[in-house]
Prior knowledge:
globular, 12 strands, Penicillin V Acylase, Chain A, 7-stranded antiparallel β-sheet, alpha+beta, 4 helices, 5-stranded antiparallel β-sheet
Amino acid sequence: MCTVSIVPIVGGLxxxxxxxxxxxxxxxxxxxxxxGARRLWYPKDQQAGGTWLALEEGxxxxxxxxxxxxxxxxxxxxxxxxxxxxxxxxxxxxxxWHFQEQVDLSQIxxxxxxxxxxxxxxxxxxxxxxxxxxxxxxDTTRPRIWxxxxxxxxxxxxxxxxxxxxxxxxxxxxxIIEFHLGKSGEDPAxxxxxxxxxxxxxxxxxxxxxxGMDVKLFxxxxx
Length: 223
């Protein structure tokens, strides 16, 4: 939920998400869950009951979450519901525009939500800064990386974007997992595979790869 990349490929798109979290936080490996008439694939955060990445079977519809909007924020004592639960609600709406227009985000902690339709090759981004919604459509023909605003400063996010661009110049997209597992050789506290004192670190990597109508799902528990 804290580092996400997209890479366009011939006939498709690859989305990869690194989860940076306390290693003691309990998590279930991905499986399929029934949500009304829908069947969703996602890893589950056992503490809050939500997720940071989910895919709806048969539709090409997916969503991926990062903590924070634009800059680090001061956390409130409590919130109405977790952001990971909100992500799952997205699948009950017709599409990204309808979701951002109708969803109630009062008393929800700031986040960045990526909403994809792999079949239509479309990606929308919704940032909630705690007061206002910021909605935009993202160009899926160009690679891009997002880093959590709650964990990384603007300068650190810029450095990570530079590493991402430099890596893609030398490597094939099929090795993108290696980038998410990699180290720049600088401070591990803001590396791609990050590690900080107190147990905060990259704990898993999830990936959805679409090519035509085919989908491949990948998950690696780094603990």
